[in-house]
Design goal:
Blueprint (H helix, E strand, L loop, with lengths): L3 H18 L10 E9 L7 H15 L4 E4 L14 E8 L1 H15 L9 E2 L9 E5 L19 E7 L4 H10 L4 E2 L12 H29 L5 H13 L22 E2 L4 E2 H9 L12
Parallel strand pairs: 4-7
Antiparallel strand pairs: 1-3, 1-6, 2-3, 5-6, 8-9
Helix pairs in contact: 1-4, 5-6
């Protein structure tokens, strides 16, 4: 029996991707080659009972017999020995591959607690997509009462495509909840409320600057009468406190960060180094700082 998602891919998704990516024929359209599920066991790899339980869980999740992976090298720092057990893996192809994606997207992923989507950064230069799952119990096939320990697993989707754009469009057509991550996401650098408050103070300063300067001249002028100077001081005190230039805080115009800001450039050192690394500042290299 042909998988539901496979028939949808052949009838609908292929034609959509041809028009979206401007391909000449259907053979250029990216397609899934295989899906590899890998579960590392760490110190539990030496325990045969735990390996058997992991093999059973992986077999239930995928509907295919799992294989025990072995270490290829001996590394003393990681306490690994060549030929010893490393974890469990399953490679899915053809119908089982499409059936697994159908269950993953529609059943398993919505069961993740506080799920906000999958990152688009998992796509590599070869057009393959890899992401991790922290709890394997999100799959309904796994009986929670029989699980000895909650484990994580890596899922790798290998495609025939060599570009990131093609893989991203393919995953979106398969209804993967992909979130587009911006390269410079500075949202956590500063509170939005603090940045907006500072911008409000700048506007107030521009609005009352001339008036403040006029009143200050009167106050400092010793030739005038004391009552006139005192009256000017009272008027100055009645103006908004945030209209004073001293109330404005130096903040980075890119990140909103209040610390480590270069006054002349009006950006923080973090933003400056990031811009220099990406080649946006001519003549500036890593050795410059």
């Amino acid at each position: 029996m042909i998988a539901r998602l496979k028939t949808r891919y052949e009838k609908e998704i292929v034609s959509k991707l041809i028009s979206k990516l401007n391909f000449k024929n259907r053979h250029q359209v990216p397609k899934l080659v295989k899906i590899v599920l890998n579960m590392g066991l760490g110190q539990d790899a030496s325990d045969n009972k735990k390996i058997k339980s992991c093999l059973d869980d992986m077999s239930l999740i995928t509907g295919q017999k799992a294989v025990v992976t072995k270490f290829k090298k001996s590394i003393a720092n990681f306490k690994t020995r060549k030929g010893s057990n490393a974890g469990v893996k399953v490679t899915l192809r053809s119908n089982k591959m499409y059936e697994f994606i159908d269950r993953l997207v529609n059943v398993a992923l919505p069961r993740i607690k506080d799920f906000r989507g999958l990152s688009s950064k998992g796509i590599d230069n070869s057009g393959n997509y890899t992401f991790g799952i922290k709890e394997h119990i999100i799959f309904p096939e796994v009986n929670f009462d029989k699980v000895d320990k909650i484990r994580g697993l890596d899922i790798s989707l290998v495609t025939s495509n060599n570009s990131k754009e093609g893989t991203l469009e393919l995953l979106k057509e398969f209804n993967f909840p992909i979130i587009n991550n911006k390269k410079n996401n500075w949202g956590n650098m500063a509170k939005t409320s603090a940045v907006q408050r500072n911008l409000k103070r700048i506007k107030l300063n521009k609005r009352y600057e001339k008036r403040r300067q006029e009143l200050k001249k009167i106050i400092k002028n010793k030739k005038l009468e004391l009552s006139e100077r005192f009256e000017a001081q009272l008027k100055l005190n009645k103006l908004p406190k945030n209209s004073s230039k001293t109330r404005i805080r130096n903040r980075c115009e890119i990140t909103g960060r209040p610390h480590g800001v270069y006054r002349k450039l009006k950006i923080s050192r973090i933003a400056l180094r990031d811009m220099a690394s990406s080649g946006k500042i001519p003549g500036m290299t890593k050795s410059s700082w």
